[in-house]
């Protein structure tokens, strides 16, 4: 699985893609700790072993709240 993260100032677009290239789930996420935590909780449920840290995430920023959670 792979995750793409489109950074926005107030809303982020997130997409989880399986190894065959099919979209598993899409989110539009407000830039709040609660909503970001909820996305990572959902990702953990969708990832085979629940280890979100093993899912490659493409994100256009090198710092910030989201990157700190990853």
Instruction: Count up the helices.
Output: 2
Q: What's the helix-strand series?
A: EEEHEH
Shape, principal axes of CA atoms: globular
Radius of gyration: 11 Å
DSSP strand tally: 4
Helix content: 25-40%
Oligomer: single chain
Map the helices and strands:
Blueprint: E1 2-6, E2 11-17, E3 23-30, H1 33-46, E4 57-59, H2 65-69
Parallel strand pairs: 1-4
Antiparallel strand pairs: 1-2, 2-3
Fill in the keyword field for this structure:
70 residues, single chain, 2 helices, 33% strand, 4-stranded mixed sheet, alpha+beta
Can you put this structure into words, describing what you see?
- The protein is of the alpha+beta class.
- It has helices at about 35-45, 65-70, and strands at about 1-5, 10-15, 25-30, 55-60.
- Strands 3-2-1-4 form a four-stranded mixed β-sheet, with helices on one face.
- Strand 1 and strand 2 (about 10-15) form a beta hairpin.
- The chain is globular.
Brief synopsis:
With 70 residues, the chain is α+β, with helices and mostly antiparallel strands.
């Amino acid at each position: 699985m792979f995750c793409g993260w489109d950074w926005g100032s107030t809303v982020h677009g997130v997409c989880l893609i399986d190894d065959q290239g099919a979209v598993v789930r899409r989110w539009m996420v407000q830039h709040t700790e609660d909503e970001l935590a909820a996305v990572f909780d959902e990702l953990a449920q969708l990832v085979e072993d629940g280890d979100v840290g093993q899912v490659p995430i493409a994100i256009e920023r090198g710092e910030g709240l989201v990157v700190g959670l990853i």
